Amino acid sequence: MEGIADFLDSLIGGISLIFYALTIGGLIWGLVVLRPWNKNTRYNPTLLKETIALIYRGAFALIGCQLLKIILKIWLINVTLEMPPFPAFAHTTQFQAGLLQAVFTIILAIYLTVYLKANPASKKHWLISASLAIPLIITGAWLVHGAGRFDDRAFLMSFTVLHQLGAAAWIGSIFQILNLWRLTQQEIINPELWPLLLRRFSKLGIGAVVLILASGLPMAFSYISDINGLVGTGYGNLLMVKIALLAVALGFAVLNNRAVGAYFSKGVKYSLNRCVPHYVTVEFIILITVLFTAASLASQPPAIDIPSLTASWEEVLNVFAPRIPRTTSPSHAALIAGEAGRIAIIGQTPSEAATAWSDYNHNIAGIFLAVMSFFAMLSYNKYCRFARFWPLGFIGLAIFLFFRADAESWPMGELGFWESMAGNSEVLQHRLSTLIAFALGAMELQARLTKNPDSSLPYIFPILSAIGGLILLTHSHVGFQAKTTFLIQISHILMGVFAIILACGRWLELKLEGSGKQFAGFISVFALFQIGLILMFYREPLY
Ligand code: HEM
Question: How far is the CA of 7 from the centre of ligand 1 (A)?
Answer without folding.
Answer: 18
